[in-house]
């Protein structure tokens, strides 16, 4: 991955003081001790599933790698307990889990759900483990082993392993109870490698009250229309999103349909009209076609202010500079949402070649 990260324009709006104060009041109340929370599901690239030693017993050990972080993971499948408690334990992996594991080959993806920490048969344990390889947080640490609750094959959606991408699982208006009040919010549900993210659109002031960001809602509604028009067996759409945590909540501050990186030649910086305001755009040659791409920004008072990072990039770049970019398209304009220099080998003037280009939001 190139060290220069794509500059992205995200209209990130923090949650209102009302919503945050409601969260703070709830968090400030005394709570009864809760049982350990079950870890989130995750997806690993299976390396092996074979008999090994753990905690003095023969167990089925499952090893794999998280696709994004490259972190090694080790899981153990609990043996069925002998009917007679006096009988010594024997190697008898949970048949439900083993049956699913047998369907997945090394190199394929596996969705796993670890057990919640709960004494002998839950959570992570350390040491006394031998299999095809021991993995830890560093070379000197013992291998953490988590007990498996569920495991099944996972079909990766195209582009799902790329940074900033998610499987779109729905968007809708909802009511959120905060500090005894109901607030209308816009919920967005996303999935990334088996993990579900329940998010909200940012709240903005419409002059009268705080409402979900209409720009995010419009994109979410459009994505929902496309999903409803699909056949039942069709895979869900992969989208691009920026998720920002704020207090107890996750906020989607940018949301777009997936777009493969595009390459072109930046020709020049020009003025652009944005709803009666003066803004800036760049002219780009993409495969022999000239595109006018508006630089993103926002209204400050009544004045349009162009995103500083993209404007600085456009001013510094010389005519003929190869670039990699992504756009957000409306009926009348195309707005830039990602922009960076292209690797020299990735672009030939006048072509749409994108092979070898890696981008990061």
Quick tags:
mainly beta; OB fold (Dihydrolipoamide Acetyltransferase, E2P); five-stranded mixed β-barrel; disordered C terminus; 361 residues; 4 helices; elongated
Would you write up a description of this structure?
- This protein is mainly beta.
- It folds into 3 domains: 42-153, no CATH class; 161-257; 260-346, OB fold (Dihydrolipoamide Acetyltransferase, E2P) (Beta Barrel).
- It has 4 helices and 22 strands.
- The protein has helices spanning 17-28, 95-102, 214-228, 308-316; strands spanning 7-8, 42-54, 57-65, 72-77, 109-114, 124-126, 129-130, 144-153, 165-178, 181-192, 195-200, 203-205, 210-212, 238-246, 249-257, 262-274, 277-286, 289-294, 297-300, 303-306, 321-329, 334-341.
- It has a 5-stranded mixed β-barrel with strand order 16-17-18-22-21.
- A hairpin with a 6-residue loop joins strand 3 and strand 4 (72-77).
- The longest helix has 15 residues, at 214-228.
- The chain is elongated.
- The chain starts with 6 loop residues before the first strand and ends in a 20-residue tail after the last strand.
- The relative contact order is 0.14.
Into which percentage range does the β-strand content fall? Answer: 35-45%
Based on DSSP secondary structure assignment, what is the total number of beta strands? Answer: 22
Structural class: mainly beta
The overall number of domains is 3
Q: End-to-end distance, in Å?
A: 11 Å
Short structural summary:
With about 350 residues, the chain is mostly beta strands. The protein has helices spanning about 15-30, 95-100, 215-230, 310-315, and strands spanning about 5-10, 40-55, 55-65, 70-75, 110-115, 125, 130, 145-155, 165-180, 180-190, 195-200, 205, 210, 240-245, 250-255, 260-275, 275-285, 290-295, 295-300, 305, 320-330, 335-340.
């Amino acid at each position: 991955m190139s060290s220069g990260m794509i500059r992205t324009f995200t209209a990130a709006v923090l949650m209102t003081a009302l919503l945050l104060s409601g969260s703070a009041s709830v968090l400030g109340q005394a709570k009864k001790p809760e049982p350990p929370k079950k870890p989130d599901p995750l997806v690993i690239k299976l390396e092996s599933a074979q008999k090994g030693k753990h905690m003095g017993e023969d167990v089925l050990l499952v090893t794999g790698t998280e696709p994004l972080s490259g972190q090694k993971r080790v899981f153990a499948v609990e043996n069925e307990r002998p009917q007679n408690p006096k009988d010594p334990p024997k190697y008898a992996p949970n048949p439900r889990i083993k049956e699913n594991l047998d369907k997945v080959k090394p190199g394929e993806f596996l969705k796993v759900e670890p057990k919640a920490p709960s004494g002998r048969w839950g959570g992570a344990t350390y040491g006394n483990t031998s299999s095809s390889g021991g993995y830890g947080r560093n070379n000197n640490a013992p291998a953490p082993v988590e007990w498996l609750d569920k495991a099944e094959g996972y079909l990766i959606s195209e582009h799902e392993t790329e940074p900033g991408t998610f499987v779109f699982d729905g968007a809708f208006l909802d009511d959120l109870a905060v500090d005894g009040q109901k607030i209308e919010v816009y919920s967005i549900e996303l999935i990334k490698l088996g993990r579900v993210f329940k998010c909200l659109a940012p709240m903005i002031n419409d002059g009268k009250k705080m409402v979900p960001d209409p720009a995010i809602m419009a994109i979410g509604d459009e994505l929902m229309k496309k999903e409803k028009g699909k056949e039942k067996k069709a895979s869900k759409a992969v989208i691009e999103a920026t998720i920002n945590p704020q207090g107890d909540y996750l906020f989607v501050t940018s949301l777009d349909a997936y777009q493969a990186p595009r390459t072109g030649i930046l020709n020049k910086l020009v003025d652009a009209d944005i709803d009666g305001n003066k803004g800036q755009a760049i002219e780009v040659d993409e495969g022999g076609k000239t595109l006018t791409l508006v630089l993103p920004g926002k209204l400050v008072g009544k004045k349009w202010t162009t995103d500083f990072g993209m404007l600085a990039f456009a001013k510094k770049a010389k005519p003929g500079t190869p670039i990699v970019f992504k756009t957000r398209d409306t009926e009348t304009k195309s707005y830039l949402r990602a922009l960076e220099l292209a690797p020299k080998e990735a672009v030939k003037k006048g072509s749409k070649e994108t092979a070898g280009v890696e981008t990061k939001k």
